[in-house]
Specification:
Blueprint: E1 5-9, E2 12-16, H1 26-30, E3 50-59, E4 70-73, E5 76-81, E6 87-93, E7 95-102, E8 108-115, E9 119-125, E10 139-145, E11 156-159, E12 163-166, E13 172-175, E14 182-188, E15 195-200, E16 207-213, H2 230-234, H3 237-242, E17 248-250, H4 252-257, E18 275-277, E19 280-282, E20 290-293, E21 296-297, E22 299-300, E23 303-304, E24 320-327, E25 346-352, H5 353-358
Parallel strand pairs: 3-9, 8-16, 10-16, 20-25
Antiparallel strand pairs: 1-2, 3-6, 4-5, 4-7, 7-8, 10-13, 11-12, 11-14, 14-15, 17-24, 18-19, 20-21, 22-23, 24-25
Amino acid sequence: MVTCGSVRVRGSRRRVRCPGAVPALMAMLSLCASPGGVVRAQEPERQAETFDVTVQVRDAESDAPLLGALIELSGVSRRHVTGVRGEVTLKIPAGHYTFTAHKGGYATLRGDFGVIGPSELTVVMHELGDVDTSIPGRLLVRVAEFGSGRLIEGAAVALSERQGGLTDGSGWVEFSDVDGPVAEVTVEMLGYRKRTEPVTLHEGRTTVVEVAMSIDAVVLAPLEVEVRSGFLEAHGVYWRMDHGHAMHVFDSEDLIERGGVPYLTQAFTRIPNLHVLGDSILGRRRCRIAVYWDGVPTEFGDQIVRPIPGGLDFLAPEEIELVEIYTGLRTPLRFSRWPGDSNDCGAIAVWSKRRADRSR
């Protein structure tokens, strides 16, 4: 590089003379004609801090790790492929990402996640099984819960304003006579965040895609808890809320707003995969959910442990500090129904103001 004027080199000053410069450099040299001019190096742009995000891809049925799954991220040009343990580590800045997971014999999976630091992410994929993919102009959409892979029944799926339908018991909805290179798929389900995804259509055959829905949890904002209860702290309630493990959390005001007067169970009627039948509450497969009262099960196995007098409907919302509700595989193991139970059905944990107030 040719330059003139005064240049600082490690604290000293050295003058560079340019008397014999060729005419082609005259335009550049004229910029340096001012005596005593100083050339300053331009500072390089700071690189955004990246975090390690380990993604593990597993089979929804066998829970086995999937080798060779292709992972694509929005805004990231590089593609990643899982190894023998079904894992791949991404180095990405903080932000919100949409991911696409591909693997032969499995439905293509679309979902999203946020990054605020080093983390781990589990992606669950479903096999296509005996799905006939030779039919042209057909789009099959499967809707599942992000993380657990649980299939969602009754989700509303629409293609722009032309076609729409509800997912069946296996999470499927089918569209025929779909044309064009891309279809915009919108999925809505009560209790989950709405998703709109562009889906690339395969020409001359069936396109199969799975949309992973993130739970839109109703969580008590930390600022509303001025003084935390030591009793709830000891039972892990705040830990589950602070670490994103709580699915649905309601305080007394929430229960009243959701119609929990005069019957408390009516506040739970709009929770996905929970069936309120009179004063009885069942899980998605009409399975028996666990009910806990101040950390103790009302029933455990065949034994009555701590029954709620009159049942849940005899509890007034004003007597309740918090209610935690879980469904499916996201139910914490602490809310088991019998010895050795992994509880993939669900649980309702009711925490009374009386016990919570004692330890504030």
